[in-house]
Amino acid sequence: MTGLKNSPVVLSLDNDNPQPLSIRAKALVFCDPASRAILDYIEMIAPSEAPVLVSGETGTGKELVARHLHALSGRTGPFLAVNCGAISENLAESELFGHESGSFTGATGRRQGWFEAADGGTLFLDEIGDLPLSLQVKLLRVIQEREVVRIGSRKPIPVNVRLITGTYIDLEQSVAAGNFRQDLLYRINIAQVHLPALRDRQGDILPLAEYFIQVYSARMNREPPQLSVAAEHALLSFDWPGNIRELENVIHFALLVSSGKEIGPEHLRIAGGWGFERQKPVKAAVTPEGDEWQTLAHQVQRLLEKREPGLLEKLENLIINETWRYSGNNQVHTAALLDVSRNVARTLLKRHDLIPG
Predict the structure, then answer these.
(1) Which DSSP state fits 101?
(2) For the domain bounded by 9-196, which CATH number is listed?
(3) Is 38 exposed, middle or buried (CB count within 10 Å of its CB: 0-12, 13-18, 19+)?
(4) Does domain 199-267 correspond to CATH entry 1.10.8.60?
(5) pLDDT digits (tens, 9 = 90+) for 201-251
(6) How far is C-alpha 22 from the geometric centre of its chain's CA atoms?
(7) Are the CB atoms for 102 and 109 separated by under 8 Å?
(8) Domain limits of the chain?
(9) Considering only 89-93, 146-150, 166-170, which range has the smallest mean pLDDT?
(10) Is residue 245 within 8 Å of residue 211, measured between CB atoms?
């Protein structure tokens, strides 16, 4: 899905879809430069058969990205989504791989698993890090052999499934802690998509808010109100720990309690509106000690006074480029210098065109 260069690109979920999906966010807007770079990358990897690992906080739109990958893949089978964290450990194997009648207590009939149901299409396993170790071994075999064996059967069933997985945790850290198999991580991590938190792509906040205003106004049969300047400032100042899902709820509530042609900060269920003091209190920036930090803080203040456009992106670009150069173009050293995981470092290096996407 593409759009005009300066127009937001919106991916949305069909709320009437009868599939039992675990929806984290109902719309994902690609307007911020970082988001548009992600969209371009998604369009590059979508036509392949390679497994994709989508990472990001809850509510950032991982399922929407998985759906978009499927839509662009050319696969004719269905898109199915499963939340691994919501499956009972006792029933997880049956849910994923199916069972034969009488194979265990309560198995009154033959049943397909999610892999069989997604044959010819795409299976999205969200929160893959919550999958029990015992099941990770069986999942690895299914990926390697491209076949499943139902519980109570010895007959392998071929499956042609594009696997996309989602995680809100660092799986490399889970491997180090003994909670996730390294060989499985290698299998599912051929291509990666990292979705930044909403607070880190501020260019998406207002377009997303406008999108939700249009959607919910249409459902309420009312003329879409405008966001006041003060309301826009409140939305941009909020930290959004719940990401897109939280923003959607805030806008929905604002439309319920506002009756005029404008949404003000008093209608927003965040700090300054309706007494929901969830926003971080405003306080003076805590600058680390040292002349270098004081100088840097002074320069940032000057840029803020000048209303420097794209300030966050430019500062990030500067930090990543300088760290990359200082490390001698070494990914491991770059990650160590920035005190982030290697996956995060690779995402940043790709975002700023320092390594191939």
Answers:
(1) T
(2) 3.40.50.300
(3) buried
(4) yes
(5) 989 999 999 999 999 999 999 999 999 999 999 999 898 988 998 999 999
(6) 13
(7) no
(8) 9-196, 199-267, 291-351
(9) 89-93
(10) no
